[in-house]
């Protein structure tokens, strides 16, 4: 009952954030004007503004939910409270693919580049999983170490490519921050298969993640196939975080901070953590986007910067209060 009420309150908060995102933006618009457009009164300029706000709201909901659920799954399969999708090299893999495509094709980071970023992110995860799974240091430790090594190598490659190619650097420096603006609903449609697949796998894994949280030996005694659960968890997190990164660029702290908040509210049961994380992740990213649009009118602060500014103090608070250990 308690968790059900918490989830219901989170859904109400998400609904309020969605409405606020349509009414608030870089241009001050009277609520009455927005209502008129929503009820069918023609105003070409306001219609264009609302279309843009609607698209970025949908993107914020999908990306925030994907990153938050990916964070819950990664922390569950690694039993590492500081785990996030970046451990698998998703962000740096997508970035390396984008840089490579821009360098060799001469094109910028347009709408079609979402496929390039998605392919690069998934390829990096497969590489990390293949190498880390065969290491002699244990499956989880080997995976984390391999992810760190691959991320370091690809980061050096990205720096080399951007520093030697000014055109690539000019395009990459805007994409790498992470922003919801300038993305239409076609981008959401493009990444939706990966998002849906990742969410379905994550939901199906929830009972097994509960068993895994008790320790590998206990999980095996309960009939859990640990290797299969970890492989499926890596796949789910890879699909979710790769699709999110490909859609809007790297977004910091959502996948790290939201799972801590979710555990503090819903407890250790992943059957509640996953849906609650999806709702809270979407809400947090939408609110961060609203803040970025409002505080710098008529310009805007990219949402990747806002989430970093919000997420860093929250993570410090979580560590001080011991949420990371729960």
From TrEMBL:
Protein name (record): Iron chelate uptake ABC transporter family permease subunit
Major site of localization recorded for this protein: membrane
Species this protein is from: Kineosporia mesophila
The organism's place on the tree of life at top rank: Bacteria
Alphabetical UniProt keywords: Cell membrane, Membrane, Transmembrane, Transmembrane helix, Transport
Compartment(s) of residence: Cell membrane
Keyword Transport appears in the UniProt entry: yes
Lineage: Bacteria, Bacillati, Actinomycetota, Actinomycetes, Kineosporiales
Coiled coil: none
